[in-house]
Design a protein that fits this description.
Elements: H1 10-13, H2 17-38, H3 40-48, H4 70-75, E1 89-94, E2 104-108, H5 109-125, E3 133-136, H6 145-155, E4 159-161, H7 168-178, E5 182-185, H8 187-199, H9 204-207, E6 212-216, H10 222-232, E7 235-242, E8 247-253, E9 260-262, E10 267-272, E11 286-292, E12 303-309, E13 325-326, E14 331-332, E15 337-339, E16 342-344, H11 346-354, E17 359-370, E18 373-382, H12 388-406, E19 411-415, E20 431-433
Parallel strand pairs: 3-4, 3-5, 5-6, 6-7, 17-20, 18-19
Antiparallel strand pairs: 1-2, 7-8, 8-9, 9-13, 10-11, 11-12, 12-14, 15-16, 17-18
Bound molecules: 5'-O-[hydroxy(phenylacetyl)phosphoryl]adenosine.
């Protein structure tokens, strides 16, 4: 299949770096000024840090500014961070967190236009255009996934199907019957939809027209992508975002699938050391910090996403875009498990587990405290029924492979097909840390 470097707005997406940076600086200065003048929280914070908006003279000066954390949003719940009167707000969303106060994010109509533009560009990077039927199997509620995808698809003139989650069998039927060509979902739901389709006697690869997927909202590895692509016979694009940054559409892969382009005319990104907050060099892994440059209702300064990634060491891509790329998100800093003093990211486990030909894409990680020691259990569902001896042999083999990668020795338990819990939409819950319960 010939691949084309689709761009919605080449004059922006492939603009010379100098132009992008000039625009970023102008917008950064405006953002800081608006926050300082209209949001008492930022006025106080900048004053305390001894910074005035005029002090921002170069892009590097962003480093003088204090970080904003999720907790700041909680403390200012619900409307404390607005830079506009509430009458100008036309939509809100909230975090899906289950404990404590939610975090509210707000949008003016200008924000919704920006968001639609970013999502439209993102879809276009995967070749989506008018004539496509975009099946949006993402929550349409407090979660930003559904509406973000919806606005972007419609902006392109494509048909947006507001499917939502749950009712999985019905989705399978509708995807087939409507002739949907693009799937929007969280990766674990793209898997589940395919599994249910096969149970219904519908082969998603052959019996549907889906050829492109836009998947995100949770950590997923390259091995997971391979599995999902094969099941659907589609090309999946990793899409990143968070409610505090409008929602999906902050960064997306191009057709080369080698890092995610950040829409830098709207976002200034840094990667910093999680402990010191000091900026890191390209290719060094740390926490992604984002300053939105066009947020109208709720400007944020140096937002600490807590997501672990790195800036790629290049500003040119064979697709022609000049917008900087970040690596796929490795996970959230608080997803990192510390097991007997060793740091383990679930993504590293997923990569090894899913490289096993006998393994289904369903696995679960459980951590327990046994006496003085932490114990890591990895449950993996086989993709066919195996006898006990075979299970033991394969579990032993996987245990050794995992130990080589993550340094910790897990206990591997192989279970029969269909034994591990499934989700009918929403973010996967694959890690159970009983030490925290
Ligand atoms: O998950 C927005 C979104 C919807 C993105 C649909 C992509 C597709 P939140 O619910 O606020 O917003 O969760 C944001 O999800 O900080 C990451 O930890 C994680 N995340 C989002 N995209 C990716 C991705 C939406 N592509 C949090 N890869 C973020 C890995 C992701 N993690």
């Amino acid at each position: 299949m010939p691949v084309k470097p689709y761009m919605l707005h080449p004059h922006i997406e492939a603009a010379p770096r100098k132009e992008i940076e000039k625009l970023q600086l102008q917008r950064l200065r405006e953002t800081v000024k608006r926050a300082y003048e209209n949001v008492p929280f930022y006025h106080k914070k900048l004053k305390e840090a001894g910074i005035k908006p005029e002090d921002i003279r170069s892009l590097e000066d962003v480093r003088k500014l204090p970080f904003t954390y999720k907790d700041d949003l909680r403390q200012n719940y619900p409307y404390g961070l607005l830079a506009v009167p509430i009458e100008d707000v036309v939509e809100i969303h909230a975090s899906s967190g289950t404990t404590g106060k939610p975090t509210i994010v707000a949008y003016t109509s200008k924000d919704l236009e920006n968001w639609a533009e970013l999502m439209a560009r993102s879809f276009a990077a995967g070749g989506v255009s008018r004539g496509d039927i975009v099946y949006i199997a993402l929550g349409y509620h407090w979660f930003t996934g559904g509406l973000g995808f919806h606005y972007g698809a419609q902006k392109l003139g494509a048909l947006a199907v507001p499917a939502g989650t749950g009712y999985t069998q019905r989705h399978v039927m509708m995807i087939r019957d409507l002739g949907a060509t693009v799937l929007g979902a969280v990766p674990n739901y793209a898997l589940r939809l395919a599994e249910v389709a096969l149970e219904m006697g519908i082969d998603p690869a052959k019996d549907t027209r889906i050829s492109v997927g836009f998947l995100g909202a949770e950590m997923w590895s390259e091995e997971m992508r391979k599995r999902i692509n094969k099941l659907w016979d589609m090309d999946s694009y990793d899409i990143y975002g968070m409610s505090e940054l409008y929602g999906p559409g902050t960064a997306v892969e191009c057709h080369l699938h080698d890092g995610l382009h950040v829409w830098e005319d709207h976002y200034l990104v840094e990667v910093v050391d999680p402990k010191t907050g000091e900026p890191l060099e390209p290719e060094e892994e740390g926490v992604l910090v984002v300053t939105p440059l066009t947020h109208d209702a709720m400007p944020l300064i140096r937002y600490w996403t807590n997501d672990i990634t790195k800036l790629l060491d290049t500003t040119s891509c064979d697709c022609g875009r000049t917008m900087r790329k970040i690596a796929r998100i490795k996970g959230r800093a608080d997803d990192m498990l510390i097991i007997n003093g060793v740091n383990v990211f679930p993504q590293a486990i997923e990569l090894v587990v899913l490289s096993q030909p006998w393994a289904s894409p369903y696995y679960q990680i459980v951590v327990e405290r046994e006496g003085e020691l932490d114990r890591l259990y990895v449950y993996v569902e086989a993709n066919r029924k195996l006898d006990e001896k075979e299970k033991e042999r394969l579990a032993e083999q996987l245990k050794h492979q995992l130990r080589e990668t993550i340094i910790v020795t897990p206990r591997v338990i192989i279970v029969d097909p269909g034994q591990l819990p499934r989700q009918e939409g929403g973010k996967a819950k694959r890690v159970i840390d009983k030490r925290k319960m």
